[in-house]
Amino acid sequence: MLSVFLTFAGICLCINGVRLYYADAAAAGAFINEKDAAVANLFTGALGLAVIYSLLNTPDVTLGNYSGAAYIGLFALTYTWVGINAFTGSDGRALGWFSLLVSLIAVPTALSTYFTAQTAFDYWLSISWLSWAVLWFMFFLLLVQQRKIARLTGMVSMIQGIATALMPALFTFWKILA
Q1: What is the pTM of this model?
Q2: Which of 11, 12, 31, 153 lies 20 to 30 Å from 128 when distance is taken between CA atoms?
Q3: For the segment 3-22, what is each residue's pLDDT rounded down to a tens digit?
Q4: Cα 113-15-50 angle, rounded to 5 deg
Q5: Coil, helix or strand at residue 176
Q6: Which runs of E-coded beta strand occur in the chain?
Q7: Which CATH number fits the domain that encloses residue 89?
C-alpha cells in the first residue's frame, strides 16, 4: 500500500511543484491552475486515508501500524489541506504552521529510521524523511513568513516528488527495490 500512496504523492508533489514554480510568472495560469492541482491533492489525501484505514484495520495491529498510519496521515492531511485551500481561497498560514510542526516531527523520524536501518530502503527512507522535513519547513517559510521562495520551493517539490516518492514506488513495482 505504501508504494501505491508514494506513486500518487510523487505525482502530486510534481504537480504542486510546477504550480509553485510558475506561480509568480506572468503566464502562471498557462501552466497549472491552483484548482486543477487541487484535484490531485484531494485524491492523494483521500488515498492516504484509505491506506491509514487499511493499516489500522487488520487483526494484528502493532505499534508499527499506528506509527505508519500517523506518518501517512501527515502527508494525507497536507495534500487534503492544499486541495481545500485552493477552493476556499485560504492564505495557507495555518497550513504553514502545521508544516513547521511536521518538519519538527520529520527530523527525529529520519534519525530514528537511520539508526535502526537494516536495508537500502531503510537508508533511503531516512534520507527521504530529512528531505521532507526541509520541504515542509520551506512551506512554513513560504506561507507564514511570506518569504519569496515559491520558485525554489516548487523546484524542491518537483525533485523530491520524483526522487523520494515516484521513483522508489516504481522501483518497488518493478522489483528493483524489495
Answers
A1: 0.93
A2: 31
A3: 899 999 999 999 999 999 98
A4: 55
A5: coil
A6: none
A7: 1.25.40.600
